[in-house]
Design goal:
Layout: H1 8-12, H2 14-17, E1 28-33, E2 43-47, E3 54-60, E4 73-74, E5 77-78, H3 79-89, E6 93-97, H4 107-124, E7 130-140, H5 142-152, H6 154-160, E8 169-173, H7 187-194, H8 200-205, E9 218-224, H9 229-245, E10 249-254, H10 262-265, H11 272-283
Parallel strand pairs: 3-6, 3-7, 7-8, 8-9, 9-10
Antiparallel strand pairs: 1-2, 2-6, 4-5
Helix pairs in contact: 4-5
Protein backbone atom coordinates (compact mmCIF):
# COMPACT_ATOMS: atom_id res chain seq x y z
CA UNK A 1 0.00 0.00 0.00
CA UNK A 2 2.99 2.31 0.24
CA UNK A 3 4.30 4.36 -2.66
CA UNK A 4 8.07 3.69 -2.68
CA UNK A 5 10.39 5.75 -4.80
CA UNK A 6 12.33 2.81 -6.23
CA UNK A 7 10.91 1.94 -9.63
CA UNK A 8 7.90 4.15 -9.01
CA UNK A 9 8.07 5.79 -12.45
CA UNK A 10 7.45 2.48 -14.17
CA UNK A 11 4.77 1.31 -11.77
CA UNK A 12 2.85 4.54 -11.76
CA UNK A 13 3.02 4.83 -15.54
CA UNK A 14 3.99 8.51 -15.37
CA UNK A 15 5.15 8.56 -18.97
CA UNK A 16 1.72 7.35 -20.10
CA UNK A 17 -0.76 8.92 -17.69
CA UNK A 18 0.87 12.09 -16.42
CA UNK A 19 -0.69 15.28 -17.69
CA UNK A 20 0.43 18.35 -15.80
CA UNK A 21 -2.52 20.48 -14.80
CA UNK A 22 -2.22 24.21 -15.29
CA UNK A 23 -2.77 26.75 -12.51
CA UNK A 24 -1.14 30.10 -11.89
CA UNK A 25 1.36 30.39 -9.04
CA UNK A 26 -0.87 33.07 -7.52
CA UNK A 27 -3.53 30.41 -6.95
CA UNK A 28 -1.25 28.16 -4.89
CA UNK A 29 -0.56 28.60 -1.17
CA UNK A 30 2.05 26.23 0.29
CA UNK A 31 2.57 24.84 3.78
CA UNK A 32 -0.39 26.38 5.55
CA UNK A 33 -0.60 24.95 9.06
CA UNK A 34 -4.02 23.64 10.01
CA UNK A 35 -2.84 22.80 13.54
CA UNK A 36 -2.49 25.41 16.26
CA UNK A 37 1.15 24.55 16.99
CA UNK A 38 2.18 24.65 13.33
CA UNK A 39 4.65 22.23 11.81
CA UNK A 40 4.92 20.54 8.42
CA UNK A 41 3.40 17.28 9.72
CA UNK A 42 0.04 19.02 9.95
CA UNK A 43 0.09 21.41 7.04
CA UNK A 44 -1.64 21.70 3.70
CA UNK A 45 -1.03 23.06 0.24
CA UNK A 46 -4.02 25.00 -1.04
CA UNK A 47 -4.96 25.22 -4.72
CA UNK A 48 -7.46 28.03 -5.07
CA UNK A 49 -10.14 28.06 -7.74
CA UNK A 50 -11.10 31.28 -9.48
CA UNK A 51 -14.73 30.20 -9.25
CA UNK A 52 -16.54 32.31 -6.63
CA UNK A 53 -17.79 30.36 -3.62
CA UNK A 54 -16.13 27.20 -4.93
CA UNK A 55 -16.72 23.79 -3.37
CA UNK A 56 -13.80 22.53 -1.31
CA UNK A 57 -12.00 19.20 -1.67
CA UNK A 58 -9.57 17.97 1.00
CA UNK A 59 -7.23 15.29 -0.41
CA UNK A 60 -5.56 12.76 1.93
CA UNK A 61 -2.52 10.96 0.51
CA UNK A 62 -1.80 7.25 0.85
CA UNK A 63 1.35 5.48 1.93
CA UNK A 64 0.34 2.64 4.21
CA UNK A 65 -0.22 4.90 7.27
CA UNK A 66 3.57 5.07 7.81
CA UNK A 67 4.77 6.78 4.65
CA UNK A 68 3.90 9.49 2.15
CA UNK A 69 3.76 13.26 1.99
CA UNK A 70 1.77 15.91 0.19
CA UNK A 71 4.71 17.06 -1.94
CA UNK A 72 5.61 13.64 -3.37
CA UNK A 73 7.43 13.93 -6.70
CA UNK A 74 7.86 11.28 -9.36
CA UNK A 75 10.34 12.57 -11.87
CA UNK A 76 9.23 16.08 -12.74
CA UNK A 77 5.64 15.57 -11.57
CA UNK A 78 4.36 16.50 -8.12
CA UNK A 79 1.75 13.79 -8.03
CA UNK A 80 -0.62 15.08 -5.34
CA UNK A 81 -0.03 18.71 -6.22
CA UNK A 82 -1.18 17.87 -9.73
CA UNK A 83 -4.46 16.64 -8.28
CA UNK A 84 -4.82 19.95 -6.47
CA UNK A 85 -4.07 21.99 -9.60
CA UNK A 86 -6.44 19.97 -11.75
CA UNK A 87 -9.49 20.24 -9.51
CA UNK A 88 -8.83 23.91 -8.82
CA UNK A 89 -8.76 24.47 -12.58
CA UNK A 90 -12.18 22.79 -12.71
CA UNK A 91 -13.74 25.09 -10.13
CA UNK A 92 -12.96 23.17 -6.93
CA UNK A 93 -10.65 24.72 -4.34
CA UNK A 94 -8.47 21.83 -3.18
CA UNK A 95 -6.35 21.29 -0.08
CA UNK A 96 -3.72 18.54 -0.18
CA UNK A 97 -2.75 17.72 3.38
CA UNK A 98 0.03 16.12 5.38
CA UNK A 99 -0.79 14.21 8.55
CA UNK A 100 1.34 12.55 11.22
CA UNK A 101 2.60 9.09 10.33
CA UNK A 102 2.93 5.80 12.16
CA UNK A 103 4.69 4.73 14.32
CA UNK A 104 4.92 8.26 15.74
CA UNK A 105 1.15 8.14 16.20
CA UNK A 106 -1.57 5.54 15.68
CA UNK A 107 -4.62 5.57 13.42
CA UNK A 108 -6.83 7.51 15.84
CA UNK A 109 -4.39 10.44 15.91
CA UNK A 110 -4.09 10.30 12.13
CA UNK A 111 -7.86 10.48 11.76
CA UNK A 112 -7.89 13.36 14.25
CA UNK A 113 -5.39 15.21 12.05
CA UNK A 114 -7.65 14.82 9.01
CA UNK A 115 -10.60 16.00 11.10
CA UNK A 116 -8.61 19.04 12.16
CA UNK A 117 -8.03 19.95 8.52
CA UNK A 118 -11.81 19.95 8.06
CA UNK A 119 -12.19 22.34 11.01
CA UNK A 120 -9.53 24.59 9.48
CA UNK A 121 -11.48 24.66 6.22
CA UNK A 122 -14.79 25.50 7.90
CA UNK A 123 -13.16 28.44 9.66
CA UNK A 124 -10.76 29.72 7.01
CA UNK A 125 -11.64 28.65 3.48
CA UNK A 126 -13.96 31.60 2.86
CA UNK A 127 -10.88 33.87 3.01
CA UNK A 128 -9.68 32.07 -0.12
CA UNK A 129 -13.02 32.24 -1.91
CA UNK A 130 -14.11 28.71 -1.02
CA UNK A 131 -17.52 27.70 0.29
CA UNK A 132 -17.32 26.39 3.89
CA UNK A 133 -20.77 24.83 3.40
CA UNK A 134 -19.52 22.59 0.57
CA UNK A 135 -16.61 20.51 1.94
CA UNK A 136 -15.68 17.08 0.60
CA UNK A 137 -12.99 14.58 1.56
CA UNK A 138 -11.06 12.38 -0.86
CA UNK A 139 -8.25 9.95 -0.14
CA UNK A 140 -6.23 7.24 -1.82
CA UNK A 141 -5.37 3.89 -0.16
CA UNK A 142 -4.62 4.58 3.53
CA UNK A 143 -5.80 8.13 2.87
CA UNK A 144 -9.17 6.74 1.75
CA UNK A 145 -9.44 4.92 5.09
CA UNK A 146 -8.77 8.11 7.05
CA UNK A 147 -11.05 10.27 4.89
CA UNK A 148 -13.86 7.72 5.22
CA UNK A 149 -13.34 7.42 8.97
CA UNK A 150 -13.67 11.16 9.47
CA UNK A 151 -16.76 11.31 7.26
CA UNK A 152 -18.61 8.41 8.89
CA UNK A 153 -17.50 8.30 12.53
CA UNK A 154 -19.87 10.64 14.32
CA UNK A 155 -18.12 10.25 17.69
CA UNK A 156 -14.86 11.35 16.09
CA UNK A 157 -16.61 14.31 14.50
CA UNK A 158 -18.06 15.41 17.84
CA UNK A 159 -14.66 15.09 19.51
CA UNK A 160 -13.04 17.19 16.80
CA UNK A 161 -15.78 19.81 16.76
CA UNK A 162 -17.10 18.92 13.31
CA UNK A 163 -20.78 19.77 13.11
CA UNK A 164 -23.37 17.59 11.36
CA UNK A 165 -23.22 18.34 7.63
CA UNK A 166 -19.84 20.09 7.74
CA UNK A 167 -18.87 17.35 5.25
CA UNK A 168 -21.01 16.88 2.13
CA UNK A 169 -19.40 13.68 0.84
CA UNK A 170 -16.39 11.37 0.72
CA UNK A 171 -14.50 9.87 -2.23
CA UNK A 172 -12.63 6.68 -1.42
CA UNK A 173 -10.04 5.75 -4.05
CA UNK A 174 -8.52 2.25 -3.85
CA UNK A 175 -9.23 2.24 -0.13
CA UNK A 176 -7.52 -0.08 2.34
CA UNK A 177 -8.83 -1.18 5.76
CA UNK A 178 -12.32 0.05 4.97
CA UNK A 179 -13.68 -3.01 6.78
CA UNK A 180 -10.98 -4.78 8.75
CA UNK A 181 -13.54 -7.19 10.19
CA UNK A 182 -13.78 -8.77 6.73
CA UNK A 183 -10.03 -8.67 6.02
CA UNK A 184 -8.38 -12.03 5.35
CA UNK A 185 -5.33 -11.04 3.27
CA UNK A 186 -1.96 -9.74 4.42
CA UNK A 187 -2.87 -9.91 8.10
CA UNK A 188 0.65 -9.17 9.43
CA UNK A 189 0.61 -5.93 7.42
CA UNK A 190 -2.61 -4.77 9.07
CA UNK A 191 -1.63 -6.02 12.51
CA UNK A 192 1.45 -3.78 12.42
CA UNK A 193 -0.86 -0.82 11.87
CA UNK A 194 -3.97 -1.69 13.88
CA UNK A 195 -2.77 -4.15 16.52
CA UNK A 196 -3.48 -7.87 16.82
CA UNK A 197 -6.48 -9.20 14.99
CA UNK A 198 -7.56 -10.89 18.21
CA UNK A 199 -8.45 -7.40 19.47
CA UNK A 200 -11.77 -7.52 17.68
CA UNK A 201 -13.02 -4.31 19.27
CA UNK A 202 -10.04 -2.34 17.99
CA UNK A 203 -10.34 -3.70 14.46
CA UNK A 204 -14.04 -2.93 14.47
CA UNK A 205 -13.46 0.62 15.72
CA UNK A 206 -10.80 1.16 13.04
CA UNK A 207 -13.14 0.11 10.21
CA UNK A 208 -15.07 2.97 8.55
CA UNK A 209 -17.70 0.48 7.38
CA UNK A 210 -18.76 -0.26 10.95
CA UNK A 211 -19.68 3.41 11.46
CA UNK A 212 -22.14 3.57 8.55
CA UNK A 213 -25.41 5.34 9.31
CA UNK A 214 -28.40 6.53 7.22
CA UNK A 215 -27.49 10.15 8.03
CA UNK A 216 -24.02 9.81 6.51
CA UNK A 217 -22.97 12.01 3.59
CA UNK A 218 -22.82 10.34 0.20
CA UNK A 219 -19.81 8.23 -0.79
CA UNK A 220 -18.16 7.62 -4.15
CA UNK A 221 -16.05 4.46 -3.96
CA UNK A 222 -13.51 4.02 -6.76
CA UNK A 223 -11.11 1.14 -7.18
CA UNK A 224 -8.74 -0.20 -9.83
CA UNK A 225 -9.52 -3.38 -11.71
CA UNK A 226 -5.83 -4.24 -11.70
CA UNK A 227 -5.22 -4.02 -7.96
CA UNK A 228 -5.19 -7.00 -5.63
CA UNK A 229 -8.35 -9.00 -5.03
CA UNK A 230 -8.13 -8.08 -1.35
CA UNK A 231 -8.15 -4.35 -2.06
CA UNK A 232 -10.96 -4.68 -4.56
CA UNK A 233 -12.95 -6.58 -1.95
CA UNK A 234 -12.43 -3.80 0.60
CA UNK A 235 -14.16 -1.32 -1.71
CA UNK A 236 -16.93 -3.81 -2.44
CA UNK A 237 -17.68 -4.65 1.18
CA UNK A 238 -17.57 -0.95 2.05
CA UNK A 239 -20.25 -0.27 -0.56
CA UNK A 240 -22.31 -3.18 0.80
CA UNK A 241 -22.06 -1.84 4.36
CA UNK A 242 -23.21 1.61 3.29
CA UNK A 243 -26.10 0.08 1.36
CA UNK A 244 -27.18 -1.92 4.41
CA UNK A 245 -27.07 1.23 6.52
CA UNK A 246 -29.28 3.08 4.05
CA UNK A 247 -26.71 5.71 3.11
CA UNK A 248 -25.97 6.80 -0.45
CA UNK A 249 -22.98 5.12 -2.12
CA UNK A 250 -21.72 4.65 -5.67
CA UNK A 251 -19.17 2.01 -6.67
CA UNK A 252 -16.94 2.64 -9.69
CA UNK A 253 -14.33 0.09 -10.82
CA UNK A 254 -11.72 1.48 -13.22
CA UNK A 255 -10.56 -1.16 -15.68
CA UNK A 256 -6.94 -1.42 -16.73
CA UNK A 257 -5.42 0.53 -13.85
CA UNK A 258 -3.39 -0.47 -10.80
CA UNK A 259 -3.45 0.60 -7.18
CA UNK A 260 -0.58 3.07 -7.57
CA UNK A 261 -1.54 4.36 -11.02
CA UNK A 262 -4.87 5.53 -9.61
CA UNK A 263 -3.22 8.64 -8.18
CA UNK A 264 -2.38 9.68 -11.74
CA UNK A 265 -5.81 8.73 -13.06
CA UNK A 266 -7.36 11.21 -10.60
CA UNK A 267 -5.90 14.19 -12.47
CA UNK A 268 -6.18 12.88 -16.03
CA UNK A 269 -9.13 14.61 -17.74
CA UNK A 270 -9.78 11.73 -20.15
CA UNK A 271 -10.33 9.12 -17.44
CA UNK A 272 -13.74 8.01 -16.17
CA UNK A 273 -12.73 8.57 -12.55
CA UNK A 274 -12.33 12.30 -13.09
CA UNK A 275 -15.76 12.72 -14.66
CA UNK A 276 -17.31 10.74 -11.80
CA UNK A 277 -15.53 12.81 -9.15
CA UNK A 278 -16.58 16.13 -10.71
CA UNK A 279 -20.19 14.93 -11.04
CA UNK A 280 -20.16 13.76 -7.43
CA UNK A 281 -18.85 17.13 -6.24
CA UNK A 282 -21.57 18.94 -8.18
CA UNK A 283 -24.48 16.76 -7.09
CA UNK A 284 -23.77 15.49 -3.58
CA UNK A 285 -25.08 17.15 -0.46
CA UNK A 286 -25.34 16.15 3.18
CA UNK A 287 -28.77 14.53 3.65
CA UNK A 288 -29.82 16.95 6.40
CA UNK A 289 -29.37 19.89 4.01
CA UNK A 290 -31.90 18.54 1.53
CA UNK A 291 -35.53 19.69 1.70
CA UNK A 292 -37.75 17.13 3.43
Amino acid sequence: MSLPACGVVERLGVSVLAERAGLSDAQVQRDISYHVDGGVDRSLDLFVSNTPNAPVLIFVHGGGWDNGRKDLRVGSLDVYGNIGRYYASQGVTTAVINYRLQPKVRWREQAADVAESVIWATKNIARFGGNPQRIFLMGHSAGAHLASMVTLNQALQRSAGIAPCDIDGVISVSGAALDLTSESDDLPYYERRFGPRSDRAEWTAASPATHADPADPAALIIYAGGESAGLQRQSQVFKAALDRAGSSAQLLPIKGESHTRMVLVLSHPDKAAVAAVLQFLRDSECPAKKPS
